[in-house]
Write a structure and sequence with these properties.
Number of domains: 1
Shape: globular
Number of strands: 10
Order of helices and strands: EEEHEHEHEHEHEHEHHEH
Strand order of the largest sheet: 8-7-6-5-4-3-10-9
CATH class: Alpha Beta
Strand content: 5-15%
Mean pLDDT: 92
CATH topology: TIM Barrel
Radius of gyration: 18 Å
Length: 295
């Protein structure tokens, strides 16, 4: 399929708690991990002061949105108790919500969602697509928070033990369609929703790249697409040489390439670790588009 460079008019904005985000140009979501067992940065930003400095640097590098996570969702990750997740998030959010930038929290626990929304957070980014009991109700009760609904096969503990079978694109598309309409039926406005195909979450390497190649088909769902390829294991597999797979931190160039390919196929938001490099790549892409035809 040819690469689309436009998006449906109905999907050009993302309504969040404090901001209506214009998605006519792609947005970069910078990742801030508050976990000691992150697959990518191995707990470099567990301490609140370190995490805040890192977040400030991501904003200087050009991040449009900050996505904060306090529980690792890598394959096989240990479940973090709600109280511990909130203890990690609280000190960071008390400062970060004062910065007047969109703040997303990566969580699937409804109690955590309620607490962070009460603290002024703008977006709930849920790998379970609000399927945990009570999560849908928390978001539906909020007047305007944004939400990202992601496809995940099985759960983080088992998703790579038994990966998906069949037509991955049709399965992902069907799942996201169902979850989107469940939220619409619950009274959540369409402008609050974005959709994430869940790269790496229960998919084989080949399935992940199939989703990238055919990602534009998801635009038919009528809402913006958010994609997170950053440092994922599928990139490591594609880069492997003589049996050696590069570590996550060595996948920066591949991550930027995947983000750019995702944007070319219609992604409105890319969730990344390497913000500056991604922003620079998108500037080149935008410069090309602006000069594609004589004025």
């Amino acid at each position: 399929m040819d690469t689309p460079l436009t998006r449906p008019n109905s999907a050009m904005h993302w309504q969040t708690t404090r901001f209506e985000l214009d998605l006519s140009q792609p947005k970069v979501m910078g990742i801030v991990n508050l976990t000691p067992d992150s697959f990518s940065d191995a707990g470099q930003h567990v301490e609140t002061a370190q995490a805040l400095r890192h977040a400030e640097q991501l904003l200087r590098d050009g991040a449009d949105i900050l996505d904060i996570g306090a529980e690792s969702t890598r394959p096989g990750a240990v479940v973090v108790p709600m109280e511990q997740e909130l203890a990690r998030l609280g000190p960071f959010l008390r400062e970060a919500v004062r910065w007047q930038v969109p703040i997303s929290v990566d969580t699937y626990k409804p109690e955590v969602m309620q607490a962070v929304l009460d603290a002024g957070v703008d977006i709930v980014n849920d790998i379970w697509a609000l399927r945990q009991p009570g999560a849908e109700q928390v978001v539906a009760a909020h007047p305007s928070c944004g939400v990202c609904l992601m496809h995940m096969h099985r759960d983080p503990q088992t998703m790579q033990i038994e990966t998906m079978a069949g037509d991955v694109l049709r399965e992902v598309e069907s799942f996201l369609h169902a979850r989107m309409h469940a939220l619409l039926d619950a009274g959540v406005g369409a402008a609050r929703l974005v959709l994430d195909p869940g790269i790496g979450f229960g998919k084989t390497v080949a399935q992940n790249f199939q989703l990238l190649a055919q990602q534009a088909d998801l635009l038919h769902l009528g809402r913006p697409v958010l994609v997170g390829w950053s440092r994922k294991s599928a990139l490591g597999a594609a880069l492997a040489h003589d049996g050696q797979v590069p570590e996550p931190a060595q996948r920066q160039v591949a991550s930027v390439a995947a983000a750019l390919l995702a944007v070319q196929r219609g992604a409105s938001v890319v969730r990344v670790h390497d913000v500056k490099d991604t922003v620079d790549a998108l500037k080149i892409w935008q410069a090309m588009n602006q000069n594609a035809r004589p004025h």
